Amino acid sequence: MRRRSGFGWLELAIGILLILLGALAFLRPDLALNSLVFAYGVAAVVMGIADIILYIEVERYTGFGPILSLIAGVLSVMSGVMLAVYPRTGVLVLTVLFPIWFIAHCISRLTQLNHVRYVAGSGVYRFALVINIIGLILGCLMILRPLFTLATLRYFAGFYLILLGIDAVVTAVSRMGTRR
Predict the structure, then answer these.
(1) pTM for the full model?
(2) Domain boundaries, the chain
(3) Distance in angstroms (rounded) separating the CA atoms of residues 174 and 178
(4) Which of the 8 DSSP states describes residue 179?
(5) Which has the closest alpha carbon to 57: 116, 107, 15?
(6) What are the respective helix, strand and coil percentages of the chain, to the nearest 5?
(7) Distance (Å, rounded) from C-alpha 4 to C-alpha 7?
(8) How far is CA 120 from the centre of its chain?
(9) Is the dihedral of CA 132, 136, 137, 142 positive or negative?
(10) 21 burial type by CB count under 10 A (0-12 exposed, 13-18 middle, 19+ buried)
């Protein structure tokens, strides 16, 4: 009997949310940065919860990956709550926090690639590998150039959120029919 994974639906919802947020960053540059910070805060909370759920699902495995998912999830939730509650402070903190979140999330995803290859296949594995390496490079670039990050945040965020969303949708679709 095939049983659908509830996590696949959550990943699909996250992917759609991320794609919409990324498109919004490109399509509505006139929106106040505070609104974008709030939206990114909500996205960080949702992604953090997904990372914590992933930790719970794979805790039986040993190694660095599952613990890193838990840490990245907790950091994402904490960061997201801070951004949603204090958006004005978040604008300033975002120049440092956003790149750290990018890097932590990408490292977390990279440590899970063997599981992704097993569950979703080598095509999704390669796609996730490339997306997360791009995210690491963008995160490092944003840390090294915080003023540049502030000036181009919506473009970095929009581009990467769309890529993360595509990654989540592809992963969700490939996991929908897997056996548990």
Answers:
(1) 0.52
(2) 6-175
(3) 8
(4) -
(5) 116
(6) 85, 0, 15
(7) 9
(8) 18
(9) positive
(10) buried
* pLDDT tens track for 132-169: 898 898 888 888 887 766 666 667 667 777 888 888 88
The pLDDT of 125-133, averaged and rounded, is 88
Which of 35-39, 50-54, 122-126 is predicted least confidently?
35-39
Average pLDDT over residues 82-100: 75
Nearest Cα to Cα of residue 142 among 126, 160, 127, 128: 160
Structure tokens at 3: 């049983």
Gap between the Cα atoms of 125 and 171, Å rounded: 9
Q: The domain 6-175: what is its CATH number? A: 1.25.40
Beta strands in the chain (DSSP E): none
Q: CA dist 80 to 29, 64, 86, 126, 134, Å?
A: 21, 24, 10, 29, 22
